[in-house]
Amino acid sequence: MNKESIYSMNTAYRGEYTIWGYQFGSGDKAACIVGSMRGNEFQQLYICSLLSKKLSELENRGAIVSGKQILLIPSLNYSSFNVGKKYWITDNSDINRSFPGNASGQATSRIAAAVMDKVTGYSYGIQFASFYMEGVFVPHVRMIETGKQSNSLANQFGLPYVLTSVPRAYDKATLNYNWQMRGTEAFSVYSKYTERIDEESAKQAVSSVLRFLTRMGIIRYNCHAGYISTILDEEELLNIKSEKSGGFFRRLVYPGDEVVRGDIIAHIVNPMTGENTAEIYAPTDGIIFFCQDTPMIYQNSVLFKMIRRLHN
Amino acid sequence: MIETVASASMLIGEVMKVKKNHLAPDFPSGREKRLSIVSGLHGDEVSGQYICYEVIRRIKKNFEKLTGIVDVYPFINPLGLEAQNRYVPVFDTDMNTLFPGSTDGTVGEYTAALIVRDIVGSDICVDIHSSSIYMKEIPQVRINSDVAEEIEPYAKKMNTDVIWVHPSSTVMLGSLVYSLNEMGVKSMVVESGVALKIDYDYANQIVEGLFSLMTYMGIWNGESNHTHSPKIAGDKDVAYVNAESSGIFIPAIKHSDIVKKGDIIGNIVNVLTGSPEETVTAPRSGMVFSLREYPVIEEGSLVARIFGGTYE
Fold first, then answer.
1. Any bridge partners for residue B7, and if so which?
2. Which domains, and CATH codes, for chain A?
3. How many CB atoms lie within 10 A of CB A217?
């Protein structure tokens, strides 16, 4: 394992700020893995720490294929963790909305430019991302439809689902989008949680990456074959909202659960009277893919995203 | 007439409402031109609050002079304004990345979608901003080069000092103005001053601009005082001055001063050692139309923008 500086800058009060990358193996730029970019992505950073340890063990055992190099950048943004902020410490800008970046621009733009420079040229790019809506997911690989994405490669992670999505306006400033546009096969791996550690889904994310690296001939590692992924288009997911009211969100089902049309899947509770102000029904048969993870919700918020007419 | 454009009950006992004041002649013909004035998208930018108040007050005072429709949306991010939060509270998202919005998204996206739906049909939309806490800005219209030709005649009426035509590569895809232009509503951003404050001279200058625009559109027969002729800044006319060190910025000039190439703009100093870190000089001659207001800076922070062009 070689530690290398990806980008370094001086700061007014925190001394030198350096983003570190860890190289395993040597040779062709085979795979690059990027972890947390926001200060609340604890699970994503945790997954990187597990992966770092594992890749180091594999390297010591000679299990990284010769002529292949892997770069792991666990976090681009330690400072926001350290001060309890989601976005960049000094100006609240979002590194994952700053790509491809500008080397003579503001700090997050410089970071994006330096990272872009280092990660360009890798055959495969993997990022542990968090969704803009906070909630719990069924673990999946997400791909932005740039026209250059490869769904069949995304299957090789062996996670239960591969989700494709049409780029939204802000997606064009993300690492994943720019990575794809520069010729890297880029994937975003979504774990169950973001702001808290979940051992089981963290291990699942690590296994999925090791499985992918094995199948791409980058490491030698015997692992379970995983799932044959179901490919979904984000547009096909059914949004279930709280149309009547806001209040306490009492969930009765969780991501991965199968529901039948007409099932009550949540209650919205008036915080003053304790009365149910709304009952949320499953509008069709299917599997819960995402749910909000907040104790209380606003009216008209999306509470669940559901896969229609699919059974476990 | 006060109308509610979007509403959602919040977590506990309160309702978020985006409202507008629909000002129209008493006996409309149905063929009136329509101007929409939007403000309060970023909750820390408050100049627009005064500007909206003053525009409505002056129209009501001489209501018979109004021959078209003026829709004023003073606070499209009402919770951000109350909470002194630039972004949409709770979701911590920049609302100006969420347009055209979605009725299947978060509360921010939902609100964005309803706002866009309401504005569509207007002939012109002016989105009033007042910078950030970091930079002080001279009154300026910002438009994108793709639509500059169509919008410039209207922008010139806005009574600002500068019209800044951005290259299309820097377009903010999720912004209100971009979305509206895509939908055929000629739209522009007006910037002035600094966040969290109202500069009344600048604000009154823009109020006059709005009445000049209304006169030009043929919807106002009353008083309008056009006092400023804007200079047009293309991409090549604007130099960005970014800090290359961190510490405290002590300006050596005043905002909107004319400088010569090589003049000292300010010093960046180390507060612990008591020594200078960097002397920031002007990379070109021109007018300093943006100047750092918030003194704590880091490597990469924007310190000034200089408009060369006819000021050189």
1. B17
2. 2-233 (3.40.630.10), 237-308 (2.40.50.100)
3. 10
pLDDT value, residue B169: 67
In degrees and rounded to multiples of 5, residue B180 shows phi and psi of -65, -40
- ipTM for the predicted complex comes to 0.89
Instruction: Name the strand (E) or helix (H) holding A214.
Output: helix A199-215
Q: Looking at the structure, tell me whether residues B211 and B260 fall in a common domain.
A: no
Whether A36 contacts A128, CB under 8 Å: yes
Distance from CA of A243 to the nearest CA of B (A): 9
Q: Cβ of B246 and A132 within 8 Å?
A: no
Determine the distance from the C-alpha atom of residue A137 to the mean position of all C-alpha atoms in its chain, rounded to a whole number.
Answer: 10
Same domain, B268 and B192: no
pLDDT in tens, B228-256: 999 999 989 999 999 999 999 999 999 99
Distance from CA of A54 to the nearest CA of B (A): 35
- Express each pLDDT in A263-280 by its tens digit: 999 999 999 999 999 999
Query: Which residue range(s) make up the domain with B182?
Result: 2-233
Question: Does the beta carbon of B245 lie under 8 angstroms from any beta carbon of chain A?
Answer: yes
Domains identified in chain B, total number: 2
Q: Of A225, A203, A212, which is closest to residue A185 (Cα–Cα)?
A: A212
Supply B276's token pair.
């200078």
Task: Residue A4: name the closest of A32, A40, A43 by CA.
Answer: A32
Lowest-pLDDT choice from A33-42, A46-55, B29-38, B161-170: B161-170
Cα end-to-end span (Å), chain A: 41
